[in-house]
């Protein structure tokens, strides 16, 4: 058993959104094999008060409050020539906390979750495992392509500077981890990094199961459900596109169809969609499983997506028919158990067909659950992490230090 410093950009509990789900399962898995020291940011009250829950996995935990306004981070980025993403998470207390743990504890490795956090790890310290999850620079490059004027310039600048930073971090890391083979290949191509590994997302297939105990919200029989964090740009753009370009086509055939947007922190733009015919915005819900279970169709209409989408895996695990954009489906080995559409007309047609043919919808959902259970359970995903970590602990920490 060795000591590992686990550094995360957001408190990895409760595991109720994409990044927290992944970071929680990584933390939990590492804690089953090592002593883990957690250092993480808290963004608000919801991130606090989880000491007892995290104490089941972390030998020690340090939570640093982060409340830097975006405008301040942007100004710092322009003045310093750095990416906004890094300036937003640049924090002296976090650096001190990291150095403090490395000084106090016999840290054998530093596991960093999310690229913005690598700036807090001092050079020349213990071996670094960098979980980029997705390639953020590619995400901003995608934003830039759709941008205009000064915003396009700013997004292109962010993509360029982040790519340089990502390459620098990868050069000093024992391994750089990505959530899918496609992301890993893109990273290798764009940065020239050599030590790149894939550790996929998984899913709790016992918890996300049609027969698991959960409350049901009582949706209508023609409910089309989307779940996600609703202040996250790709989710906002995806549901806006669906409500404006896809749903009207569906309602031409099924006037009773309702698009249900489920997720916390809906922006004003998302809330405004709720005033459109056939659109419902729930805000935060205690448990998304009931909403998924009652969906006639689960949709993932993302226009920009990286890696493996938990929302797709969750819909599959709940044995619901899933219709996804090509972007949302790209990283998932679904073997044809979800419907994939390249444009608004195709997505609307796929959904209308499933609404009309409930037997086919049931068969597709059952096949999806079989596929996700066989392919994406967390134990299978974590075996890849074990292979990455094993070379670091072939000898005791003290011997390596000597």
TrEMBL record:
Q: What is this protein called?
A: Sugar transferase (PEP-CTERM/EpsH1 system associated)
Q: Which InterPro entries match?
A: Sugar_tfrase_PEP-CTERM_Stp1
Organism, scientific name: Sphingomonas xinjiangensis
Q: Which GO terms describe its molecular function?
A: glycosyltransferase activity
Lineage, top ranks: Bacteria, Pseudomonadati, Pseudomonadota, Alphaproteobacteria, Sphingomonadales
Does Ligase show up as a keyword for this record?
A: no
Domain of life where this protein originates: Bacteria
Which region is the signal sequence? none
Key words, A-Z: Transferase
Keyword hit for Transferase: yes
């Amino acid at each position: 058993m060795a000591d590992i410093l686990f550094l995360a950009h957001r408190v990895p509990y409760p595991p109720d959104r994409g990044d927290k789900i992944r970071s929680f399962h990584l933390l939990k898995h590492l804690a089953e094999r090592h002593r883990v020291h957690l250092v993480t940011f808290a963004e608000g009250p919801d991130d606090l008060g989880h000491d007892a829950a995290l104490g089941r996995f972390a030998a020690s935990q340090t939570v640093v409050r982060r409340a830097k306004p975006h405008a301040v981070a942007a100004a710092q980025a322009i003045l310093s020539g750095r990416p906004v993403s890094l300036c937003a998470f640049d924090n002296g207390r976090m650096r001190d906390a990291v150095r403090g743990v490395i000084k106090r504890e016999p840290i054998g490795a530093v596991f960093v979750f999310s690229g913005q956090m690598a700036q807090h790890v001092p050079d020349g310290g213990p071996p670094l495992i960098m979980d980029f999850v997705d390639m953020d620079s590619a995400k901003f490059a995608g934003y830039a392509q759709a941008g205009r004027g000064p915003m396009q310039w700013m997004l292109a600048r962010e993509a360029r500077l982040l790519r340089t930073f990502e390459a620098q971090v990868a050069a000093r890391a024992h391994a750089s981890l990505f959530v899918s083979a496609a992301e890993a290949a893109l990273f290798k191509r764009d940065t020239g990094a050599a030590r790149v590994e894939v550790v996929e997302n998984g899913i709790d297939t016992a918890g996300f199961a049609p027969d698991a105990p959960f409350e049901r919200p009582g949706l209508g029989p023609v409910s089309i459900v989307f779940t996600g964090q609703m202040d996250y740009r790709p989710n906002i753009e995806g549901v806006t596109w669906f409500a404006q370009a896809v749903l009207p086509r569906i309602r031409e055939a099924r006037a009773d169809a309702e698009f249900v947007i489920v997720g916390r922190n809906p922006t004003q733009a998302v809330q405004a969609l709720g005033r459109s015919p056939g659109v419902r915005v729930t805000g935060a819900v205690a448990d998304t499983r009931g909403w998924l279970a009652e969906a006639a169709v689960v949709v993932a209409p993302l226009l920009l997506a990286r890696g493996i989408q938990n929302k797709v895996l969750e819909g599959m695990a709940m044995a619901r028919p899933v219709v996804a954009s090509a972007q949302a489906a790209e990283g998932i080995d679904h073997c044809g158990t979800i419907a994939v559409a390249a444009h608004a007309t195709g997505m609307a047609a796929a959904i209308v067909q499933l609404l009309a043919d409930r037997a086919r919808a049931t068969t597709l959902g059952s096949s999806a659950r079989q596929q996700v259970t066989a392919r994406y359970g967390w134990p299978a995903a974590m075996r890849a992490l074990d292979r990455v970590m094993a070379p670091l602990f072939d000898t005791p920490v003290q011997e390596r230090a000597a």
